[in-house]
Structure formats: C-alpha cells, structure tokens
Amino acid sequence: MSSTFVINNTKSKYCALKSIPVESVKLTDKFWSERIKTMEEVTLPLQYELLEETHRIDNFRRASGKISGDFVGFFFNDSDVYKWIEAVAYLLSYKKNEKLEGLVDSVIEEIRLAQDEDGYLDTYFTFEKKQDRWTNLKDMHELYCAGHLIQAAVAYRRATGKASLLNIAIKLADHIARIFGPHGREGTSGHPEIEMALVELYRETNDKKYLDLARFFIDERGKGVIGGSSYHIDHKPFRELNEIVGHAVRSLYLNSGATDLYMEIGDETLLDALERLWSNLVEKKMYVTGGAGARKEGEAFGEEYELPNETAYAETCAGIANLMWNFRMLQTLGEARFADIMELCLYNGVLSGISLDGKEYLYVNPLADRGNHRRQRWFACACCPPNIARTITAIPGYMYSVSSDGIWVHLYASSILKLDINSSSVTVKEETDYPWDGNIEFVLEANSHFKLFLRKPGWCEKFSVSINGEKVNPILENSYIVIEKDWQEGDTVRLNLVMNPELLESHPKVKDNVGRVAIRRGPIIYCVEAEDNPWGDVWDLEISEGTGLVEEYRDILGGLVVVKGEGYVNDPESWNGLYLTRGNARALKREIEFVAIPYYAWANRTPGPMEIWIKRS
Amino acid sequence: MSSTFVINNTKSKYCALKSIPVESVKLTDKFWSERIKTMEEVTLPLQYELLEETHRIDNFRRASGKISGDFVGFFFNDSDVYKWIEAVAYLLSYKKNEKLEGLVDSVIEEIRLAQDEDGYLDTYFTFEKKQDRWTNLKDMHELYCAGHLIQAAVAYRRATGKASLLNIAIKLADHIARIFGPHGREGTSGHPEIEMALVELYRETNDKKYLDLARFFIDERGKGVIGGSSYHIDHKPFRELNEIVGHAVRSLYLNSGATDLYMEIGDETLLDALERLWSNLVEKKMYVTGGAGARKEGEAFGEEYELPNETAYAETCAGIANLMWNFRMLQTLGEARFADIMELCLYNGVLSGISLDGKEYLYVNPLADRGNHRRQRWFACACCPPNIARTITAIPGYMYSVSSDGIWVHLYASSILKLDINSSSVTVKEETDYPWDGNIEFVLEANSHFKLFLRKPGWCEKFSVSINGEKVNPILENSYIVIEKDWQEGDTVRLNLVMNPELLESHPKVKDNVGRVAIRRGPIIYCVEAEDNPWGDVWDLEISEGTGLVEEYRDILGGLVVVKGEGYVNDPESWNGLYLTRGNARALKREIEFVAIPYYAWANRTPGPMEIWIKRS
Predict the structure, then answer these.
(1) Are A314 and A364 in contact (CB under 8 A)?
(2) Is A506 on the interface with B (CB under 8 A)?
(3) Percentage of residues of chain A with pLDDT beyond 90
(4) Could you give the CA distance from residue A260 to residue A201 in angstroms, rounded to a whole number?
(5) How confident is the model over B185-223, as pLDDT tens digits?
(6) In whole angstroms, how far apart are CA A425 and each of A7, A10, A375, A428, B268?
(7) Residue of A509, A578, A580 for testing the chain B interface, max B β-carbons within 10 Å
(8) Following CA atoms B80, B82, B85, B89 in sequence, which dihedral angle do they give, to the nearest 10 degrees?
(9) Alpha-carbon gap, residue B139 to B128, rounded angstroms
(10) B332 part of contact set with chain A, CB < 8 Å
(11) If you compute the radius of gyration of chain B from its CA atoms, what whole number of angstroms results?
C-alpha cells in the first residue's frame, strides 16, 4: 500500500514544497477530529444512503443492464458517487472502517460493470444516448465526470492498495486519450476538473500520456472549440487570462489543474497567468469568507468589486475549489499568502456548507440573510455534499508540507506528524486550542538538522516564538517563521499568535459594504444571528465605532468563541421620515450588546436574520 | 383681465388656504428674479425656436393643411407647445413682453386652425390616423395633451384676458365630455394630467360638467379600462390606494388632480387616500432632493426604500409634479409639511433640471454620477424643458396664500406682496438673502386685524421672531408661526431661521445610503463635484465624523454658499487587498478639505464625478 496524498507532487520538478501523506498526520484536536468523526459516523453512511435513494448508484446498475428504467437525475450525477468514494478513501488512509470500505468496494463493482468494453464510462450516455457521446463537451460534463472518477480511483488505490477503481479509471483515461489530443480530436471540457485529475493520474502511474492530455485540454482553451464564451473560460488562451471570470467552480478547478500542470512542466507563462488570476481573485472578487462567485446567474464571478452580501452565491464547491487551488499554489511557491486563503476558506466559506450534525448542507453561502435560506439534506444538483466530505476527510493532508529544507506547518491543529526528513525520522507533536487560541506548542522528536517553517497567518500582526522556553527573534521568509536547528528529542517550540477580535473594513469600491464592518478573530469570520440577539433585528444593528470587542467561550453549536460588543439598534419603525439629521437619528437609536458567532455555525438553529457586514454607527 | 393663478381655488369649499394671483407678488430678490429674467431673455425665446426646429409647431400646421409631410416626433409632442404657452402666460401676468405674447398668439392661431370642427385636437391623430382617435387611452396620451392645452389656455386667458386659446380648449373639453362620462364611454387616461386641468377649467368657467368629468376620470381608475396595471395606477380604485406606484409623473399628476377634485367636492375617502400616498412617498420613496421615481425602467417608483443614487431616475417632471401636488395639499390642509416638500423640490430636484444659463436641461437627476450624465439642449421626449419653464415663471404664485384669518408665507424671497384681506388692502415687503441666509424681514403696510402665518421649515430647529424689534414667544400651528395683530403701517416682523450646514442620515432601510451622509444647509441639499475638489475622486471622499462644516459665499455658478469640511480620501489604488482591519485601512487614508456646492448647480462645469450621499469615516 502506497501513501495517500491530496496531491502527490513528491516527484514534481517545479514546486517549492512537497505534499505529505494524509495518514502521516494524526489529528488529536477537538475541532477537526470531531468533524472527521461525524464524517465517519454520520455523513458518509448517510451520503451512501442518499446516493442509493436518489438512484445515483442505480444509474450504474442500469448502464450495466442489471436493472431497467430511465436514467435518473442530472446527466452529471455519476460525479457525486465518485466524490463520495474519494471522501471515504482519505478517511480509510488513517482510519480502518470495514463497513465503509465494503460499501465502496460494492459500488466500485457496479461502476466496473457499467463501463463499456472500449473504456467509455458515463451512465447518462448509454442505450439510446450512446450515439451522443463526446458530441457536446461544452455542456454535458463527460470529461468532468471522468475527472472525478480518476481522482477517486487514485485516492482509493493509495488509501487501500486496491487497484479495482484505478483500473477502471485508466481504461477510461486511455479511451479519452485515444479520442482527444494533438493527433486526435480537438476539444476541452465545459466544466474543468479532468485537468488536475489527469496530472494526478500521471503522478500515480508515471504514464506521460496523461500529463500530455491535461496539457492539451488546457491549451485547447481560447480556441472556441467549446463556444468561446468567458463563462466557459474559453474566450482567451489560458496563458493570456487577466481576470478571473465565468462559472466560479469551473474557473477555480481549471486553475487547480493548470497549477498541477505547472508543477510538472514548469512553463512560466502558465505561472504568470495563475499569479494574475490569483491577484484578481483575492484583490477584487473574493468574499471575506473565502467564498467565490457573486452571481446566482451562471453560478459565476461578477464584475470586479461586485460582492453583494444577501445575493452572494459563494457556492460551497467554489470555496472548496478555492482551497484546492491555493493548496496547489502553496506547494508550487511556498508562500503563506496561499495558506492564508486555504485557512480562510476552510474555517468560513467551506465549513459553512455543512451543518454541525453532518446531515445537512448549504449549496449557496450568502453573507446576509433574512432567515429564509436554510440547510437541506441533499440537492438535485448534489455536487457540494460529497465535495465537502472529501475536503474534510483529507484535512490532515493539507496541514503540513515538506521541502528539502525541512517541515512546513500551514494549518494549526493539535496533531502528531510523523515523517522522514532526509531519511531521518521525525515526529512533531503539536498542541493548541486553535482556532480559538493562538498559542501553539510543538514538541519534536528528532535528531537531525532541518528548518521548521511556521506560517505567520496574514490575519496576525503580533506574535512571538520561543524555543525551549527562550524567546527568539523570529526570521520571516514568505511569511513563514523559520527556525533552523540541530533538533534534539524533546525540543519545544512555542508560537504565540496574538488573536483578538477586530473589525475589518472593505475595499472602498465594494459598494455593498460601504459603512459596514465585519468581525474577525484569528482565522474565523463572525456573523450576527437572530438567536443570540433577542434585542431586535440584527440587520438593524450598528456597531459602536469605539466598542471593545470581548471574546467568550460558549458551549453552544459544538463549542466556540463568541464575540460580544456594544452597538445600537437603529429601529426602522421609529423613523418618521426618510432623512434625519445625524443628531435626530442618533436620538432614536437604542444601545444594546450584541453577540456574534462564527459564520460557519450559522443556520443551525431557529431561522432568523443573519449578517456578516454590520453597519457601523 | 382677471387674475392669474397657479390654481384658482378662491371659491373652492374644501380647502384651508386660498391661492393668490401670480402677479400680486413682485419678486425683488436675487435668486428667483435672476432665473425669471433668464426665462424671459433666454429660455422662453430659445424654447420657441426649438419647438419650431423640432417641428412641434409644424405638426399643427400640418394638421390644418398648411404644410404637408409626416407628423414629426412623439405622438404627445403637442403638449410641449402647450406647456411653453403656459410658461409665457405666467410671465406675462407680471411682465409685459410683446414679443413673447406675439409669438404665443401666432402659435395659438396655428393651434386653432388645427382643431377639427367637432373640437378634436391632437395633431398626431390626423389624416390616416384619424380613425384611431380615442382607441388607445392607455398609451396614446390624447387626454394628457388635452390637459396641457386646457392648463395653458386657462393661464393665458387669466394673464392676458385673451380667450383665443380658452375657446379652443373649451371646444376640445366639450368634445371629450360628449364622448366620455357616466352616460358615455368608459375610459381614463394612461397618463393623468387632464384631471387637474378639468378642475381648473371648471374653476375658470364655472361649468360643472368639467368637474364631473374630472371626477369620472378619477373614479374610472381601478376598473381595468386601461389594462389594470399598477404602472398606469389602474390596479385599484383611487380611493383604495395605499402605496405610491407606477410611472412617477403620472402618479403625481393624478394625485394633483385628485387633490384639486377634493377641494371642490370634499370627499374624505379621496383625502384619506391622498394622505396615505403622501406618507408613503415622503416616508419611503422620495429622494433627499425631492426627486421621485427610482427606476429608469418605466420612469417609475421602485419598492419602498429602493432609492439608488447613481441610477436614480428622479425625472425633472416628477420633481415638478411633486411640487404641484404638494402645493395643492398645502392649499387643502394648510400644513407646513407640504410647503417643506415644495421648497425641497424647488431648490433641489427641480432646479437641477435646468442649467444656470437657462439653455440646457437634465431630464434625469441622479444623486451620484461619474461625469457622464450631462445637460442637453433638448430631448426627443421634451416634457421637462417647458415644464420647468412654466414652474419658474409661476414661482411668485407659489409663495404665499391667504385664508379668512390672514396671510400665509410658504416660501421666502425678497418680494412685495399686495392684496386685499377682508376688503382691506395690505402690502407686505419681504427682505431676505434666502436661501443663503435665514434672516427674513417683513414690513407691513396695513391697517387691519389679521394673522400672519410664517412657515417654520422642517429643516429648521432653532428660530426666533421679533415684532418691531421686540422678541416674541412664537405660537406654532401646523408649523406656521402665527402672529395675530392689529397691523399698523410700518410694522416690522423679523424672523430668524437658524441656518447651519448639517449632516443628514438616511433611513436604515435605504441600502444605498448605509454609512453615508448628505449635507444640507437650510433648504439646499449639497453635493461634492470634481471641479471644487482637486485632491482626488469625490467618490472616494469620507467625511470626518466630527468635522466642523464651514459655509462660505462664493461668486461662482451664479453666486452661492459652499460648504467646506474635513475628510479623508480613501484612495482605492492604495489598497493591496479587499479587506483590511480598520486600523490598517485608516493608515491609507489621506486627510483633505472638501468643498460642497448646492446640488442644483451641478453639471454646469467640466464633467467629473459628483455625489450627494458621501461616505462617512
């Protein structure tokens, strides 16, 4: 059995960092361990039931002739099954679970039976629809589904050693490679995803054909072979892109694939485009939650600075795609700015996508709501539920990296990391109450010389480091605190990231946030929700400009730190006109104390108004 | 020659106040006198030329067979000619001008020749279109044009004693009365206007048929005879309306007509509906400039609190209609809240509609602009230019009213008012630098007992009154300061309305104004415009919360008081991301001094950004 990686770039030439096996990290924390436990006990078994209930697995049975009837659901529903397998695979890499593994094996058998002799596999294009295969790459998501199959197959192979699904994926990938490519048909996917999958298949099999195919699909863009729209990111060659546009998930999956490709082939024009797109996203089109995609129409990016709150789309999958892309950029360049976005997404715009009990989901993650937008147990288009599952079970794999220099810590959580650095075994025991507390202790079991790179989060302005109790002047490189040392057994590094609640202001061109502030504490973005604020409508809250923000641990919503402060209720009913002098308007305002909770925890209680960007008085 | 009134409600039973003749007030001020002079010397002659140039008068010549060719322009273009005549009429009531009178007479002759034997008059529905007369009341504005003809005719008759146009109007009104009514065809106008015209025609002729017809047209609404849409205010019977909706000008003209009707027939269900509509407008749908109509689409009111700034429609005609309606409500109820809105409209959202040189117009009056929205010399749909002309030449008629108790002063300007109160002649000499100064002096030449009612503007919180140098404790009734006295020659009343620049805040539900303030000084709403603020883009200005606002008279833009203050430029280019802590954001801001000018004067210089609602820091 090989190691399980989110991406296995250990042999990639053009990257600063190397990913580590998911199972090399044993989480011992409360925050993520609890969520992974919920994944194992609640979410993944329930998702299997839902895949059955909604005939997603039946579609494979039907394709193989086992059962009759019509294909059920959306034409891309196979992908949900694959993502669920991928989610289980990461879990199995560090947690034995015969029941889930047995379920996956039985599903893989259904998939195997559904595959055509020639390798084709997509249960929608069977029987009477067989003739339509590969005729509409723009809309019909065959390559997208294939990508998810490949990702699941590689993960399952790595986690269990079983080649059953990988053989199916290879057979399909070979089929695709026979059809498309420089010497075959032109084409690329209307919904990117296969690009990163093919690079990973190349990494797993060492068969360069898959890398070439990934490159081909990226290079095909901008030629108009799928219609030439910016919605499909087909309006320009990838290397000429300046602005992040189109369907948010597609755009970010494409960037992920292009980053994977860069790590293998090292083409600077690719990296330049990726840097431009990254800046454009982070400086002009990303929500404060890490969410991406301002518009419901087309699930798409809007104009620069178009970031409405109530109508924000910020699909859970787009937050995940943002995390995936930034993880790849982080591996490529080894700069903390990418880990900052990963962390932002993970604790906010991604985690908001699943209920605390692991049973319900948000597809869309608005930053303000009247209480009407509620979690659902499933969706007709169910991309988000298994996507968030595969993200959470893979979390240990996102936390650290290695380089020839040493160990990189990106995301903080109590955990035990075991790996070899230059053939010498190292154990790092990390202890922290992160994300609620910025004190982090690392105890090392090592007997070698290397650097420990500790990420200084972008949100953190003050921090201190001590080694074996002695304070040191930290050296910062690309915003990692670098500690170089001959490490001894029991060496202890303590990092204190000063974590206080603070008010954020939005870029002046974001119209919808003028006069508003958001509360952030460490990596967590807060919101005010009705249930904690019985004094009125949270939409009428004005935060006092000079208020002291107070933090308080509460045993609600799974345990979390709330932020309290002083403000005013500007009761709309008390206004007897539209316009008042500032003095007269102030006289109508009532002083109150508000309570803010982490945004990820919203919509888990009685429905009511919520908002992140709060007016300031 | 009779007296010229904006409305002659001297014999109306159901009204608290009576309008006074336009010519009973001689303006001696700088502000309005200058504008009336520009009207006489520039605007009215130029508008005549434009009416000729655009074939609006030719359409009459064509209808009478004098010239051949097609009807030119919009089907409602006759109305522009009528409004121009009305504008000249008010001017002629107090200023002899043979040239303009001669022009009007010649135009009236063209109109006369264009009228059919049966009284029908609308130059669009002639020749091949004759068969379509009265077939599409919803869209084709025949009754609207008739209304403007009647208003012009009544005004011209009153101002000059000449019955030429009135005879034409009566012939048309009789024609309409033969067709429509309880015993004739059902119908009402898609574009209200005729209602108030018919009431005025009744007041002028004492022929009750016209009043009945006005009532009929109002009572027809809500029956679906013009399609039943809320856009046409045909979705409900008028007396059941709760929310001001639809095309803004139509809605406000309709309310004007209904108020005129109420003054004659006194139906409380009418007044109740008018009060509900007024509250809805003023509390939920009116711009701080008095502008009405949030949406370009349909030139219509939006939802409650939907008051966007950059895309505000706020048509000049809608501001005028708002003034007209409030003048009628003021006459009806004698409460200053209506005069407050008149004043607001007049100095802001109406006056902005014409350039300082009297040669160019704004049709749409946005509250924020990038410098692209510019004045034009005319419009294909040219309703606004002659409408603002008839408003400005009639201004003396809006300033005062009388009641059996005495004299009411609504709008302040240096002027000499001469009239009889209970058969005793009274002269009021008013001296003030209003709207730049709140000191107002009244010297009375009178020898009788009556009350002087001086409006305490809604914008004014502090004021004082003295009589013959002695300070008095003012009595307020419906926000008029009431001074009852046996008046003697030379009695002097001094009113001091404390006038300071102040910041306004918007109702919390007006999304686009969150975190923003507007500057008001007395009746004037201010804006920041590029030319006075060379430090950067005025859209990036943040007014300092505690700034002292300083006023300064400047000899620019016709002479006006500017307001200066301290603020910050929040330079968007200096932000290297989307979200900063308040502290880091503040560090990027540059302190500057800004200069604000009255909104009415914007767009008279080099194009550049402008806004009324300014961010506060």
Answers:
(1) yes
(2) yes
(3) 96
(4) 11
(5) 999 999 999 999 999 999 999 999 999 999 999 999 999
(6) 22, 17, 45, 10, 92
(7) A578
(8) -130
(9) 18
(10) no
(11) 24
Q: How far apart are CA A5 and CA A90, in angstroms?
A: 8
A517 touches chain B (CB under 8 A): yes
- Please state the separation of Cα A167 from the chain's center in Å: 28
What pLDDT does residue B546 have? 83
For residue B512, what pLDDT band results from cuts at 50, 70 and 90? Answer: very high
Would you state the structure tokens that stand for residue B460, as one six-digit string?
């004014």
Q: Give every CB contact of residue B273 below 8 A, 6+ residues apart in sequence.
A: B238, B239, B240, B241, B258
Q: Please indicate if any CB of chain B lies within 8 Å of the CB of A111.
A: no
Q: Can you list the domains of chain B with their CATH numbers?
A: 18-362+375-402 (1.50.10.10), 406-497 (2.60.40.1180), 501-616 (no CATH)
Tell me if B575 and A508 make a contact (CB, 8 A cut-off).
Answer: yes
Q: Which two tokens stand for residue A327?
A: 């993880």
- A577 and B503 within 8 Å at the Cβ level: the answer is no
Contact A615 B579 (CB under 8 A): no
Task: Say whether B581 and A505 touch across the interface (CB within 8 A).
Answer: yes
Sign of dihedral through CA atoms B300, B301, B303, B308?
A: positive
Q: Is A284 on the interface with B (CB under 8 A)?
A: yes
Residue A278: count other Cβ atoms within 10 Å of its Cβ: 21
ipTM for the whole predicted complex goes beyond 0.85: yes
Contact across the interface for A506 and B579, Cβ inside 8 Å: yes
Q: Looking at residue A193, what is its pLDDT?
A: 98
Across residues A458-467, what is the average pLDDT?
Answer: 97
Interior/surface letters B216-244, b for 16+ CB within 10 angstroms, e for the rest: bbbbbbbeeebeebbbbbbbbebbebebb
User: pLDDT confidence of A578, banded at 50, 70, 90?
Assistant: very high
pLDDT single digits (tens) A553-563:
999 999 999 99
pLDDT at A32 over 60: yes
In angstroms and rounded to an integer, the radius of gyration of the C-alpha atoms of chain A is 24
Nearest CA-CA partner of A309 in A522, A91, A575, A609: A609
Reported as a single tens digit per residue, the pLDDT across B334-384 is 999 999 999 999 999 999 999 999 999 999 999 999 999 999 999 999 999
* Minimal Cβ distance to B514: which of A509, A514, A576: A514
Model pTM score: 0.92
Kindly state the helix (H) or strand (E) to which residue A393 belongs, with its residue range: helix A384-393
Helix intervals (H) in B133-247:
142-160, 164-179, 194-205, 208-219
The alpha carbon of residue B571 is apart from the nearest alpha carbon of chain A, in Å, by 8
Give the residue on A whose Cα is nearest the Cα of B546.
Answer: A582
Q: Beta strand pairing status for A614-616 and A541-543?
A: parallel
Do A248 and A313 form a contact (C-beta atoms < 8 A)? yes
Contacts of B516 in chain A (CB under 8 A): 514-515
B214-247: pLDDT as tens digits: 999 999 999 999 999 999 999 999 999 999 999 9
Tell me the chain A residues in contact with residue B585 when contact means C-beta distances shorter than 8 Å: 505
Rounded Cα distance between A365 and B579, Å, is 19
pLDDT band (50, 70, 90) for residue A498: very high
Chain A residue numbers touching B616 (CB-CB < 8 A): 515
What separation in angstroms does the CA of B59 have from each of A37, A187, B54, B153, B595?
83, 62, 10, 19, 48
Q: Give kind and range of the element (H or E) at residue A212.
A: helix A208-219
Q: How many CB pairs under 8 A join A and B?
A: 102
CA-CA distance, A245 to A237, in Å (whole number)?
Answer: 13
Q: Which of A307, A524, A579, A590 has the most B C-beta neighbours within 10 Å, making it the best mutation to test the interface with B?
A: A579
The predicted structure's pLDDT at residue B576: 83
Please give the pLDDT value at position A97.
98
A576 in contact with chain B, both atoms CB, cutoff 8 A: yes
